[in-house]
Amino acid sequence: MSLDQGKLNEFVGKFVSDFGATLHAPTIILGEKLGLYKAMAGAGQITPAELAAKTGTRERYVKEWLSSQAAAGYAMYDTSSGKYWLTPEQEFTLADENSPAYLPGAFYIAASIFKDESKIVDAFRTGRGVGWHEHDEYLFRGTEKFFRPGYAANLVSSWLPALHGVVPKLERGGKVADIGCGHGSSTIIMAKAYPNSSFIGYDYHDLSIQAARRAAQRAGVADRIKFEVADASSYPGENFDLVTVFDALHDMGDPTGAAKHVSSTLNPDGTWLIVEPMANETTQENLNPVGKMFYSASSMLCVPASLSQDGGGGTRRSSGRI
Length: 322
Fold this sequence. Notes:
- With about 325 residues, the chain is an alpha/beta fold.
- It has 13 helices and 7 strands.
């Protein structure tokens, strides 16, 4: 075997970057769980001892954690003072859960993949699917944390107004079904914005429906939202003014059948809102950092979810909700 030393060094450099990012990912979950990022937000430059005192953690662990964040570019470090801080951009993405670019939820999703690796190995060998409900609960928690900020930033302000005649219906009092609602974030956001309308969220995963019901109670909108266990191809109800599917269609075993069922449950002048990740059409167009994320998530989450369902054809797209 003849090796090009330059190309070998380049590839090993890629490995170092990827391996470092993989090892760094759990530290982001630590930062989110322990409130470290939130405690740093607005605090200016801070020492490990000060951050440990603010968060009820131990200084020695916090010092190492802060160094990992600075090495990864997730925090800043001042060599003269030995203090750390977050830039406004880092605060926006790591400490503000209402930010449309809040990132820690994505790392819960990644952690769930590691936890479920043995199931995916078996699926590759047998061809069977791995349903959404078969994954670790980190997947459900991470999906809600990762997608909710984007819905909060865009759903009421731009997505619904872009649909012809939908907002006036909702303001008067419409009937809405949210399919694949997960923990109910999108349903709750709409219900809070349009109190005259009624909403029902459907998801085949019973534990997600239970979480959605609790979330509706906390948000004070349980009087106008129902959450029920049902799949996309057979959920009950009819005469909906609006049916929504957020980041879930690509995970369905039979998206065509789901589309036909949605059509049958809409009013004649009803509207179906679909939100899906954007990918290019060909493999070569997706050989880039975004494609790396999409294909990896698809291999570990989306294709297994699709293949686990009746009619599962393994629709290939990025990760989302079921």
